[in-house]
Write the structure tokens for this entry.
Amino acid sequence: MPPTLASVVRNSSLHLTLLAGADHLERPVRWVHTSELDDPTPFLEGGELLLTTGIKLGKSAARLQAYVHRLADAGVIGLGLGVGLSHTEVPQPLVDAAAQRGLPLIRVPEATPFIAISKSVSAALAAEQYEAVTTSFEAQEELTRAALGKDGTTAVVRKLAARLGGWAALYDGSGALSAVAPDWAARRAGRLAAEVDRLRRRPAPSSAALQGRSPGIDTADEDYVVVQSLGADRRARGFLAVGTEDRITPTERYVLNAAVALLTLTLERSRELRQAEERMGAALLGMVLAGEVATARQVAAGLFGGLPEGTVRVLVAGAPPGADAAEALGELGDRAEQAGGRVGERLLVSREEGAHGPRLTVLAIDNGAAHRSCLGAVEEHEGLALGISAPCTLEEAGAAAAQAERALAVALRGGRRSVDHEEVGAGSLLPLLGEEAVTAFAEGLLRPLRDHDRTSRGDLVASLRAWLSRHGQWDAAAADLGVHRHTLRYRMRRVEELLGRSLDDTDVRMELWLALRAGEE
């Protein structure tokens, strides 16, 4: 602990007497400064114990009060007045002013040289620095042994909480709580979900300090919280949160930084190993999609822990051409792997640069944790889209991948976040077409009819829609419109005249119906 005014006053070898400010003795002393200036504040930084004989102060109450106010405003934490030279005793106006401002005032006897007080504080500061360095090294060794042990990251979290005298929590890359110590802090750590989510959207490493109390925690459980993202390549692999009763000291900050470094190394693993695992997963997925499921099973059983079993889906994520989506796709893949890993769910992931830009392909259990994670993650990334195949077996995954690609194409053209193959297979033709192209086609084809309807009698657009919906049946269409069939025949002749096309042509009817439907979308 740093030296405080209380420890200085209690030093019996200095023979100091406290005259004012007894309630403010726990302030840490950053330094001891001696000055005989009437205004020494330009040479102060705050946190000093100022020593003076008061030669320039005189005995005016107003000057003494102004002197105290200047020191207090400058952040001086204590004033020591040496008696026996300019002042035989500490002037009462100085005592009164110090008491008013809550500034500890100390009587320094003539037999106590100022240098003795400076040496006492300097020795205490040096001892504190030595203790900080020693404690930091001890903590680093302890945390390193914990990281190398069987429990790994969980052991580091436990040791860190004990070292800080508070609590610590570790979250994975998706923000889910993975370890907490002590056990009673689980609810407290769970309330930091919003703060962790904010950090997850920022490049790693980054941190946030919640001074005062944890979000949502009762006043009786006030604490100071620091949340730190863990990652070395701008992508957060996890998050560490610690809570303490008081603000973290410099020594505790060293300990926290050591834990952050160890956890980052543990979560990152070696880059070569991670790249090898990614290449293995992509190769296995390629084999499955190529129909070589039996061979893929043999390879995965020994090296990859097996393949997904049961009903699966293929999900393909991408972005419009030209979009810088590689990082977002990488995060989506990480979250899918983490979601599956938490519940022991097998999945295969492949990241590659395709003909239409970067693509992420995921083979996951139908409606499993990884499947749901992809659906949730793509909603959070503007510009990303997800195509989802129909449920299938591993042997059908090749065809399912083609389904997912077609669904992705529909999603990208329509500006949608995700499209299921079932929507493409059972829905309208319109979603498969570019929205702008369809709109332009419909407006151009129907413009003569719309211009007519704005200036003349007879609703040609509505009449055409009714006639086409009834497949050219005059009586049924006329009944829908509430007009005589001869009136409808006249209107259809006007449609042919304005468009310059015959309604007997099947292609013309199809184009008109498509244009009318596009106008309804």
About this structure: The longest helix spans residues 114-148. Residues 213-220 have pLDDT under 50 and may be disordered. The chain is about 50% helix and 15% strand.
